[in-house]
Amino acid sequence: MGFYDYSVTDAQGNDFKLDAYKGKVVLVVNTATGCGFTPHYKDIEAMYERFHDNGFEVLDIPCNQFAGQTPGTDEEIHEFCQLHYNTKFPQMKKSDVNGENQLPVYKFLKEQKGFEGFGKGPAALAMGVMLKKIDKDYKNNPDIKWNFTKFVVDREGNVVARFEPTQKMEDVAAYVEKLI
């Protein structure tokens, strides 16, 4: 199975088939409303506005698996994002990205692009220290480590990049721009 063979549930409870994104560059991101990385919404929205007319989409999947940082309902999450970040890209139903109840598309994404580290800098160091307390072997599994992990899917449906939340949003935007 490929990226376009999967579907997710949108915030209204409808089945959303990912083949709607055929021929587009897609940023898949697990989001949270109460996280230190929540301001990434601003940069993601800026990317959406900048690249959308050239075939760029955002697949926003709120997730409450990381320190309970997305406690609201789908409607509350949507209202928060519109109020604070004026988001225009659609949001999907709050879902799991790891574990027994993970979305099948997330299992696929992680098989295509596993965890390669947090990069350098204070945020990367802090994430490593925190995760080592939670999972001593975190470096050796492909699981999503925290909110705002991003996958980039190219126009052919290939998972071509994974960006951890500690990586600069400018790097994500530059990568996407090369594909547009």
From TrEMBL:
InterPro entries: Glutathione_peroxidase, GPX_AS, Thioredoxin-like_sf. SUPFAM superfamilies: Thioredoxin-like. Keywords: Oxidoreductase, Peroxidase. The active site is at 35. GO terms for molecular function: peroxidase activity. Pfam families: GSHPx. It comes from the Bacteria. GO terms for biological process: cellular response to oxidative stress. Belongs to the glutathione peroxidase family. This is Glutathione peroxidase. It comes from Butyrivibrio hungatei.
